[in-house]
Amino acid sequence: MASFRRSGIPEVQELKRDASFQQILELDFNDMIPFVISNISKPGLYSRLYMAVNAITLAGLVIGVVWAFSQGWLTWTGLIKQFITGVFAGSILVIPFHELFHGLAYRILGARKIKFGADLQQFIFFVSADRFPVAGMELYFLALLPFALINALTIGVIIIWMPHIIIFCGFFLLSHNLMCIGDFAIVNYTRNEKGEIFSYDEIEKKKSYFYKKVDGNLM
User: Fold this and answer.
1) CA distance 215 to 219
2) For the residues of 97-150, what is the DSSP string, one character each?
3) What are the tens digits of pLDDT across the range 145-197?
4) pLDDT in tens, 21-39
5) Are 132 and 209 in contact (CB under 8 A)?
6) CA-CA distance, 139 to 76, in Å (whole number)?
């Protein structure tokens, strides 16, 4: 698989030793939930986008349910069935596909040592590329590719199989998009830090590291 041409991305040792890079965060995988809650709560472009997407999806779902009842093709039994199956598919069945899309993003960027993992106690699923630094727009691409692809594919399904699949897809999308909270928290953190941000994982240590390019004029 072809990868993007990457230039100007420092290696891990350069990030650690070069004085022009400053470590701004060492994130233990076990501390992911506090990190996510803290950063999705902070004002920022991507926290607002996360809230807006879910609010719009919920509003569209409510409108769809009211419309379906008014047209007479949706019953309360049907609504309950589509609620259960949509939420289950959007929060459980979609997980392997979501993580595979993260892995696809890593592959496109050129990573090869990719590991899929989970912490069932925290109900966290993740993909790591050992000691593979990413920076700038790569961070956004890596974090948000699953969200973008799954939303696009689901909207395509809705358009093709309207109207009877719309309620199931609404519950599916709402559940999945809510589950993307960690992805949005990471990009919101990156955006709020401003400047040039670099990040990499060390799988054995189960940690992620974030560095910022230091302005030489300030040193």
Assistant:
1) 7
2) HHHHHHHHHHHHHT---EEEEEETTTTEEEEEEBT--EETHHHHHHHHHHHHHH
3) 999 999 999 999 988 887 778 999 999 999 999 999 999 999 999 999 988 89
4) 999 999 998 888 999 999 9
5) no
6) 43
What tokens does 145 get? 């590719």
What is the rounded CA–CA span in Å between residue 90 and residue 179?
8
Q: How many CB atoms lie within 10 A of CB 78?
A: 15
CA atoms within 13 A on the CB side of 166: 18
Query: Given the structure tokens 């727009």, which residue do they identify?
Result: 137
Which residues lie below 8 Å from residue 92, measured CB to CB, with a gap of 6+?
none
| Pair of tokens at residue 97 | 């596909």
Query: What does the angle CA 153 – CA 158 – CA 163 come to, to the nearest 5 degrees?
Result: 170
**Residue whose pair of structure tokens reads 């109207």 in the numeric block:** 163
**9 — pLDDT class (breaks 50, 70, 90):** confident
